[in-house]
Specification:
Layout (H helix, E strand, L loop, with lengths): L2 H17 L8 E2 L1 H8 L3 H13 L4 E3 L3 E3 L5 H19 L20 H14 L4 H24 L3 H13 L3 H17 L1 H8 L8
Antiparallel strand pairs: 1-3, 2-3
Helix pairs in contact: 1-3, 2-3, 4-6, 4-8, 4-9, 5-6, 5-7, 6-9, 7-8
Length: about 210
């Protein structure tokens, strides 16, 4: 396998682990250790870690290595607010009521986290502005780790998502924009509890 192909494979596999929440918050990501499990040398692993750090999916410091981010309540509030603004922009110029024909199909996903990502990513991919698409997809990916905590904290999560999905399928853009804004404001209010759910059970409360 060529070096470029190896780098891409390692990046995809490592990114999937990060998005799946494989590494607890604050855990160090050592290239040498990861290389063994990824079946690669440390160099492509290190390159992939730098790329993920550039996407803000992990954190890095000069000469300090890499780690899974430790998210604080304020971090979640900022991320939720940012995602809400980007989604609103992606839906801004659509008519108040128009069938969704011609847009990307919304896949049926029984899992709350996967379904939420599918809806928001579908909205992102149908946006005309390439920069907006890129920023929104990045925000969606950085939020993936939060979804499992959201559904544990908020029993209404699946119902809220179903209502947004229905508005999308019927092209009810005004209603969808309103529901997306309310969804993220709700998450901001719940940010402290979501952070607590993300923290490993052995960690002391701080």
């Amino acid at each position: 396998m060529s070096p470029g192909a190896t780098m891409q494979r390692v990046y995809i596999e490592l990114k999937a682990r990060v998005l799946a929440g494989t590494f607890p918050p604050g855990s160090r990501l050592e290239p040498a250790q990861l290389a063994t499990s990824l079946g690669a040398s440390a160099t492509p692993v290190r390159d992939a870690l730098h790329r993920l750090a550039g996407e803000r999916l992990i954190e890095s410091w000069h000469q300090e290595g890499f780690r899974q981010p430790i998210l604080a309540e304020a971090d979640l509030c900022d991320l939720y607010s940012w995602a809400a603004m980007l989604l609103a922009l992606a839906l801004k110029d659509r008519p108040s009521h128009q069938a969704a024909g011609g847009l990307f199909e919304l896949e049926e996903r029984p899992n709350y986290g996967e379904a939420t990502e599918s809806l928001f990513r579908t909205i992102a991919m149908s946006a005309d502005n390439q920069e907006l698409r890129g920023a929104l997809i990045n925000a969606i990916e950085r939020s993936q780790i939060l979804r499992r905590a959201e559904v544990r904290v908020d029993q209404a999560s699946r119902g809220l998502l179903a209502a947004m999905e229905e508005d999308y399928r019927f092209g009810r853009w005004t209603g969808l924009r309103s529901k997306i804004t309310s969804f993220h404001r709700r998450r901001v209010r719940q940010a402290g509890r979501i952070v607590a759910e993300l923290r490993p059970r052995t960690d002391p409360l701080r």
